[in-house]
Design brief:
Blueprint: H1 2-12, E1 19-26, E2 30-37, E3 42-43, E4 50-51, E5 54-67, E6 70-82, E7 92-94, H2 109-122, H3 128-133, H4 146-150
Parallel strand pairs: 2-6
Antiparallel strand pairs: 1-2, 3-4, 5-6, 6-7
């Protein structure tokens, strides 16, 4: 029975194949997955050297695509590691999970694609900001602040240079 549950989970959420799933809780309107990264060396984004020297751990809360009309939240325990290269400018760094995490993002890449598609579909709509302040699509069952659709990537906005005369 446990093997069947594991297979079902990896079928519904294939991006979780690269982490250790500790629990899955189904609440009234949300599925909460608690997971942790696998042990092992990770490449430093600054210099590329592998490191397994752990500094600390913390939990990232990631929104993911909905399942069965329920929002999905992944509580992922990630490691902050020391870079073992003394010449590297990065003293510590946080491991990223391919296909699941992106630096500084609170959404999985899969949910990010949904948010961007909705942002494009609502572009130019007078009521777009009001619509996305609440749940913007019953089909995807995710909540995003209005500013999250106006600028869905979360990247800093570049200001145009002042014209010179």
């Amino acid at each position: 029975m446990l093997r069947l549950c594991d297979e079902m989970l990896t079928t519904l959420l294939p991006q979780l194949n690269v982490v250790v799933v500790e629990s899955v809780e189904v609440e009234r309107d949300m599925v909460v997955v608690t997971a942790r990264t696998r042990a092992g060396p990770v490449r430093c984004p600054g210099c590329g050297q592998q490191s397994s020297w752990e500094h600390s751990r913390y939990v990232r809360r990631l929104g993911d695509e909905a399942i069965g009309g329920r929002a999905v939240r992944i509580d992922l325990s990630v490691r902050r590691l020391y870079c073992e290269n003394t010449a590297c400018s990065k003293v510590t760094f946080v491991e990223q999970v391919c296909g699941l995490t992106v630096r500084y993002q609170r959404r999985t890449p899969a949910l990010q694609l949904v948010v961007e598609a909705v942002a494009v579909a609502l572009a130019g709509s007078v009521s777009a900001y009001a619509m996305c302040s609440a749940r913007y699509s019953p089909r995807c069952s995710a909540s995003v602040a209005g500013s999250g659709l106006i600028h869905p990537t979360g990247a800093p906005i570049r200001r145009a240079a002042a014209p010179t005369h």
